[in-house]
Amino acid sequence: MLRTPLSYLKHRIDEINAETFKYCYTMIEGDALTGKLEKITYEIQLMASPAGGTIAKTTRKYYPLDGVETSEEEIKTGQERSRAMFKVLEDYLIKNPEAYA
């Protein structure tokens, strides 16, 4: 698992749609923005899988600060961190179904 020491993150919830299982939020402050990004927006859509279970589709949009360049490697590292965090959450919920029942 990829671990990164972060002192804080601040998110804004933009949309919660219980009918379509869609959740949108924006990271507006924190170490993860590395002084190079104004914000990162996330859209998470959950759908039933034909084979059973759930498919999670995630869209991220990065907003760099004016005049700042962000490398593809930095974006990939951030995506790996997000996937690792999602995996931890998924594992916890599988082991603890009463947490969301």
UniProtKB/TrEMBL annotation:
Organism ancestry: Eukaryota, Viridiplantae, Streptophyta, Embryophyta, Tracheophyta
Gene3D superfamilies the record matches: 3.30.530.20
Domain Bet v I/Major latex protein: 7-96
Key words of the record: Pathogenesis-related protein, Plant defense
Family the entry assigns: Belongs to the BetVI family.
GO biological process terms on file: abscisic acid-activated signaling pathway; defense response
Name by which UniProt lists this protein: Bet v I/Major latex protein domain-containing protein
Transmembrane segments: none
InterPro entries noted in UniProt: Bet_v_I/MLP, Bet_v_I_allergen, Plant_def-hormone_signal, START-like_dom_sf
GO cellular component, one term: cytoplasm
GO molecular function, one term: protein phosphatase inhibitor activity
